[in-house]
Amino acid sequence: MGIRTGAQYINGLKSRQPEVWMSGRKVTDLVNEPVFQQPIREIARLYDMQHDPEYSDKITHICEETGERVSNAFLIPKSFEDLQARRALFETWAKENFGLMGRTPDFLNVTVSSMASNAAFFEKYNPDWAKNIQNYYKYIRDNDLFLTHAIVNPQNDRSKASHEQKETFTHLGLVKETPEGIIVRGAKMLATLAPITDEVIVYSFPGFKPRDERYALSFAIPIDTPGLRLLCREPMQDGTRSLFDHPLASRFEEMDAILVFHDVLVPWDRVFMHSNVEAANQLYSQTGLMQSTHQNGVRGLTKLSFAMEIAARLADAIGVDGYLNVQTQLGELVQSVEVIRALLRVSEYEYVTTPHGEVIPAGIPLETIRGMLPKMYPRAIEIIQTIGAGGLLMMPSGDDFENEELRDDMDRYYGGRSGVSAYDRIRLFKLAWDLCGEGFGQRLVQYERYYSGDPVRKLGMFYSNFKRQHSFKLVDDALNGALKAQKEPVGTQD
Ligand SMILES: Cc1cc2nc3c(=O)[nH]c(=O)nc-3n(C[C@H](O)[C@H](O)[C@H](O)COP(=O)(O)OP(=O)(O)OC[C@H]3O[C@@H](n4cnc5c(N)ncnc54)[C@H](O)[C@@H]3O)c2cc1C
User: Fold this and answer.
1) Which of 89, 246, 411, 420 could form a disulfide with 72 if both were Cys (CB 3.0 to 4.6 A apart)?
2) Nearest 5 degrees, angle CA 439-CA 441-CA 447?
3) All structural domains of the chain with their residue ranges
4) Which of 256, 443, 451, 458 to mutate to test the pocket of ligand 1 (most atoms within 8 A of CB)?
5) What confidence tens digit (pLDDT) does each residue in 424-451 have?
């Protein structure tokens, strides 16, 4: 089939009934559920772009194996140009939602592509696992599927390993093997957008201990698999708030869910790994998951640029961007954007070719983005809050603004500097408040901190890897140079 349209994606959602719980009730009509309607539209729009002549050649390509047009997320890059083609997809889709939707279909499609192109890793442990991940890659590529992922154990007691938790199946684990597949029980989090996806893939960050074998799992199943329960967090919008009042929150909220597996059967052909602590601990570093960090980086750059532009437009609208303190904050934001932009470029230009010919962006600059964005983005939000100040809280609702009796007051007291009407200023400040004040915006800060794991441990791992790869030779040069200089008789220098 190849690339889907938005309508095909929506028809897929209509064709199944996953067990979704939200606000104390079972959601039985996903596509007409107000909380999900707008996010579904946003995702459908991305699928439609694949068919739009303006974008088609930029974000899709003809698959060599099938002759079908498929998303660039399924490209296994063999050259710098392939990396750029994939980046074009990340960038084009991120710009459609200003980088505020992190888990658009490209994110996990790239992840699975990268796992499949590193099938040799799975082969080492079990040839079936290698075959399964490769077939799964082809299946989601050819059907253009949308995945969520759940890779973190529920946050019960982080001081204990999985096998030491209060109950055997607090963390998702293997119950038994059957002729049809494995039975799994327990929970995983935090599957973003899960209710409106087609499938879920499960794998884990490293950190398994001896005796954690039953938890060392990786597999993928349809989101409506019997026994799989999706527990949504409390929605941050009810799907009925106006786009005038909440121009971002009403469009781009990504629902998160805990997945509870009640003795779910995972067919053997969907098992990518099980009962192997060593393999599970190596999975992340040995299967090129860096490729999805590329998507994160491009999307993060779009989001940070958006925050920077909002801060600049706020300052301009109320005539404060001539003040030195405001200029230094805005300058800091521009420089943050430039640092991330430069790091992305370095990662792409200094790409690495793996032994099996796959081209991957350089890891150190991408991981540096991963380390810096969790500090830069919250700072950007703080700057928006600081520049917008009380103005962020004085904005009327759209209904007030439309009320003829209030209109004169609105026009007189809500306008900005000369040339900025009340209408323009109110809309701008509401946009800013969605990003920096609403629950929606606070989730986006939390997302930037945690979307790919704990930044504290990630930075620790980053430095350990850096140390392994780096000789620190400049120090030797300086020490040797000093010895040499000491031995050279005075007057022999040129
Ligand atoms: C908005 C959002 C969306 C997300 N979407 C997804 C998704 O789609 N799929 C998915 O799988 N995950 C997703 N995540 C989850 C994300 O992977 C986790 O939040 C992240 O891995 C951190 O784990 P945790 O939240 O359990 O924090 P914890 O690991 O419980 O950490 C809590 C605190 O304790 C500290 N800490 C814990 N353990 C240690 C330790 N061993 N050593 C030192 N310090 C420690 C941490 O530094 C942190 O400050 C999402 C998270 C957020 C916030």
Assistant:
1) 89
2) 105
3) 6-286, 290-469
4) 451
5) 999 999 999 999 999 999 999 999 999 9
